[in-house]
Amino acid sequence: MLGFMLVIPASPPVGDGLPAPQAWRRSEDLERTMKYAIVESGGKQYKAVEGGFIDVDRLPANPGDSIELDSVLLVADGEEIAIGTPTVEGAKVKATVVEHVKGPKLIVFKYRPKKRYRVKTGHRQQYTRLQILEIGTGK
Description:
Blueprint (H helix, E strand, L loop, with lengths): L20 H13 L1 E7 L2 E6 L3 E5 L8 E4 L2 E6 L2 E4 L8 E11 L3 E7 L4 E7 L2 E11 L3
Antiparallel strand pairs: 1-2, 1-5, 3-10, 4-7, 5-6, 7-10, 8-9
């Protein structure tokens, strides 16, 4: 008989590697005090944290240039949250272009059985790595 056997334990082990509930609360407290924004660039949304890095679709800017992202959908500063309709008025995210990077290689293979049709192509997306300098709340 060909096949495989799947064994699932009835109950999880005692030391399952999950953090204790107190650790969850600490991470939630950290997120409450953290300042972040949801920005839109190239039709995609990214979570920008001050001092952090985000990879967006390639922008026409040179490394070292500073740019402003005007399309800010949400700004959270501790307990204060400003949600835009669709964007937050006056809110801007200032960032610096660190470098241009390439994403992972993707292989696209088209195949039609019994037709001798095989096409193999690849794709590698270009990204711009941004360092978030400041999140302006627009107040």
